[in-house]
Amino acid sequence: MHLSNLVYKASQNQNPKAVWKAIGGSISESVTRRRLAGIKKSLSDKRVYMVEHHLAHAASAYYPSGFSKALIITLDGAGDGLSGSVSIGNKGSIERLAAFKAS
């Protein structure tokens, strides 16, 4: 959704939770994509990937932990429409078992 449409939608809705939901993820994603584009230019010979929000949390906990097998739980306010996930880290890979939608 374009930013001007988000602003219009937000101004028509008096429910703060709905306004936050309408503008929060889209603006964050737009900013992230612009930043990523700038990073890609400076790393032209490297590969840069977008990673799902809770997978990034899980990976940053699991990979440096030193465990070959681990239960991984992520919880936060709302990342990519989710507020949490449960995954298993096993022999260097991560498998999501459950995800909890942001409420």
Automatic annotation (TrEMBL):
Pfam families: Carbam_trans_N. InterPro entries: Carbtransf_dom, NodU/CmcH_Carbamoyltrnsfr. Residues 29-93 form the Carbamoyltransferase domain. One of its GO terms (molecular function) is catalytic activity. This is Putative nodulation protein. It comes from mine drainage metagenome. The lineage of its organism: unclassified sequences, metagenomes, ecological metagenomes.
